[in-house]
Amino acid sequence: MNPDKLRKLEQMGLGPVWQRRGLPDTPAQDSLIDAPALADDAAGGPGHDPVLADDISGMDWETLEATIRQCTRCRLCEDRHHAVPGTGDRNARWLFVGEGPGRNEDLQGEPFVGPAGKLLDNMMRALDLARGEQTYIANVVKCRPVGADGRDRPPSADEVSACLPYLKRQIDLIRPQVIVALGKTAAGSLLGLPGDVSLGSLRGQPRSFAGIPLAITYHPAYLLRKPTDKARAWRDLCAARSAIDGH
Ligand code: SF4
């Protein structure tokens, strides 16, 4: 790594664990494991509602975002301050997908704010990317899942099922060159796998979603708790980069 790059990473607080230590093999496109098609029906929740997945699949950006902001397809609408559709370049090469909005995201209506968002920005910078430039950030569910204790929780299978048609439409509209699933909820949801699947069993294999290379890595919030796994995350990101530009 050249000194400028190394200094930049160190200034970002990523330290030497982000040094490139050799790239994983570039996945051959024809060997990718493609995710199953998403179920096109909404699981819905109590009393939910009228927006059908078939309708969502034909929406333009403006209609899609307006529909998400007013959506009542699942019970997560009941406690939200803001739905969080996503943010970024609508022609992005890179799509980063997280689990769902947390408390700060719910209050601000933006995905990945706060410390985890800062780390995601740093991860993008290490790839010579920036938020909003060639990148789009979205979540599997667009409204904050809140536990009985008032804290963030993972979305339930019903909530994921209800909200996935929105993400699928975003993917259709963006047609990114690579999707990066951040954490096991994002990865498992895109791959149609049960919630108890382990992230370790999903990482490091060539996969795709709708024909688009799908890279799987750790959620930035997890990396904040366990920074020693940043080196593994960096390898995942390098593999994602290899999938689109042959580095
Ligand atoms: S999480 Fe998704 S499906 Fe549920 S209310 Fe929000 S936008 Fe609608």
Fold blueprint:
Layout (H helix, E strand, L loop, with lengths): L2 H9 L21 E2 L18 H4 L4 H9 L17 E2 L5 E5 L4 H6 L5 H13 L8 E5 L17 H18 L3 E5 L1 H8 L7 H4 L4 E3 L2 E6 L2 H6 L4 H16 L2
Parallel strand pairs: 1-6, 3-4, 3-5, 5-7
Antiparallel strand pairs: 2-4, 6-7
Structural descriptors:
alpha/beta; Uracil-DNA Glycosylase, subunit E; 7-stranded mixed β-sheet; 10 helices; binds iron/sulfur cluster
Strand proportion, as a percent range, falls in 5-15%
Q: What's the CATH class, please?
A: Alpha Beta
Alpha carbon gyration radius: 17 Å
Q: In oligomeric terms, what are we looking at?
A: single chain
**Largest sheet descriptor:** 7 strands, mixed
CATH topology: Uracil-DNA Glycosylase, subunit E
| Class based on secondary structure composition and strand pairing | alpha/beta
CATH architecture: 3-Layer(aba) Sandwich
